[in-house]
Amino acid sequence: MAWRILFNLLRWIFLAFGAGLIILGLNLAQLRLEILFLAAGILLISLGLIMVGWYLRPNRAQVNPVMQIESWDVVDDEQHNSNTDLIQWGDYFYLVHDVSPFHFANNNCQLELRRSQDGRTWETLAHFSSQGEDIRDPKLAVIHDQLYLYALVNRSFDPEPYTTVYTYSQDGGVTWSPLARLEPEGWLFWKPKTNDGLTWHVAAYWHEHGKSALFSSTDGVQWQFISMIYDLGHRNDETDIEFMPDGSILATARLEGDFREGGYGMFFGHPAGGTLIASALSPYTNFEPLTISLLTRLDGPALFSHSGRVFAVGRMQAELNQPFKRQGSIFARKRTAIFEVKTDRLVWLSDVPSAGDTAYAGVALHNDFLYFSYYTSSIRQDYPWIVGMFNPTAIRIARVALNRLVV
Q: Which one-letter DSSP state was computed for residue 328?
């Protein structure tokens, strides 16, 4: 809370301090230092005006009217709610998300699990924490009629998860086993999926970045390495998969930049940032990189398929102009958006109401509708990512008819 208040006060401190320095400079002419005070004052006032502009500019998300997207709040409680996942199982939707004071690591962070029959009225089932460590990026899967929850644990302020933990429930999410480390340790698991109900596959990225891989399991606990998805020099993070009608796998991965070129642009982005698209035929022992899309860096990808085509919900960067808004910049405007994933490119379909710190969706297909969860800063303003990181965020559900995806 203190970090949030301090950061938000900067927009007024810059203005006030800058105005004070200009007045001081004008009154110190006899010391011949006025030019220094004037320059400092103008700089601080400029920073203040930028900050105020960030806070006040209206939202310009581009929601495609043809898709007729509905969306509504599930949680809006002045916390930084984030990193969602959603499934539909039996009579219920299950939704899990992070709860924390802000985007960065916090030992009080916890996961909250809810369920709903209609996607609008929710009951809270459980909370999860990791013994004083930060916990984030939860993923749900139903494996042999048991509900599994996977999550990443982290010890650094700027989140760098170091391994995956899991728990499971045998009674529909009411009671859970203790959190346990998943092996092989050091791999950060995304969302397990199956195309036959017998074997589950999951993409995972290495905690030191630089590579992602495919694992398989028949029980959700014992996972075996199958193949490397990507290890060609980029800082390689969140990776998701989806099965194609012919049994092959299509994968996307978040690429932040090239290690070999001296970094990945943590603050200002990186010109090599983008989205890997790769594929593998069964038995998935060899992934072929197909392309790197520069449309966006698809952070927090949630892939799904419909009518033989693959789609994704993830983070879209709304601007890529230089010098402060290269791909992945914390100063750029972000969106949650829907894409089609083709073998040679990403195709933007629509934003949803979103801004600031946003995306990390969960997807459920039910009764001819796509439902997906996501988080977002205030949808009335158009904060850059860094402002959203320090402010409260809401959990929302969006719904769109599946036939609207393929028009």
A: T
Reported as a single tens digit per residue, the pLDDT across 122-151 is 999 999 998 889 999 999 999 999 999 999
- CA dist 393 and 78 (Å) reads 7
Laid out side by side, the sheet with 394-401 consists of: 70-75, 394-401, 369-376, 359-366
> Is 111 in the same domain as 146?
yes
If one counts every other C-beta atom within 10 angstroms of the C-beta of residue 359, the result is 25
State in Å, rounded, how far the first CA of the chain is from the last one.
45
Q: At what angle do helices 34-56 and 2-26 cross, to 10 degrees?
A: 140
Average pLDDT along the chain: 91
Q: Are residues 39 and 99 in the same domain?
A: no
Exposure string over 121-155, b if 16+ CB within 10 A, otherwise e: ebeebbebebeebbbbbbbbbbbeeebbbbbbbbe
Count Cα atoms within 13 angstroms, Cβ side, for 373.
31
Residues 6 and 152 in one domain: no
- What would the pLDDT profile of 161-183 be if each residue is shown by its tens digit? 999 999 999 999 999 999 999 99
* 46 and 65 belong to one structural domain: no
Task: Tell me how far CA of residue 201 lies from CA of 65, 96, 224, 344, in angstroms.
Answer: 36, 21, 9, 23
Q: What are phi and psi of 87, to 5 degrees?
A: -140, 165
